[in-house]
Amino acid sequence: CMKYGLFIALLNLLFLAANAQPTAKIPKKLCGMYTGSQPAYAIESSDQVSSVLPASMIIVLTRTSVSVCYQSSKLCPVVDGEVKTIRKEGKGKSKRWKIQVFSPNSLFTEDLVFYTKNKELTRIGVFPQPNTVLKKSRKK
Questions:
Q1: Is residue 122 a contact partner of residue 129, using CB atoms and an 8 Å limit?
Q2: Which residues, other chains included, contact 22 with Cβ-Cβ below 8 Å and sequence gap of 6+?
Q3: Residues 96/90, Cβ–Cβ less than 8 Å
Q4: Residue 19: which region, alpha, beta or left (left: phi > 0; alpha: psi -120 to 50)?
Q5: pLDDT band at 81, cuts 50/70/90?
């Protein structure tokens, strides 16, 4: 009876290990610090229109995490967010990487697209935010 219990526990452990999702890893060539500026936009609510000024943004990609920060207000909505999915699309000059990042402090995922041809990272804004195009910073 004890042997069967041990055998069932071992089978359950093997099943869980086989079905566990591996952590998505960002390719080394995409890792680094990207800087850019989020354009100004307007928010409409009821009868009021509020405008949001342009803000400089930094996105840091590491092998397993992503951080998104606004420089002017020192606000970081995503700190070491977990890479949920990463996939390569297209071939040749039209190749791009789509990265989806999950942050425990946010209701939304951060969607990023890296275009290989012009080496730009685009942060897909959540409505009414516009998309933000960022360039990789050079090492000093």
A1: no
A2: none
A3: yes
A4: alpha
A5: confident
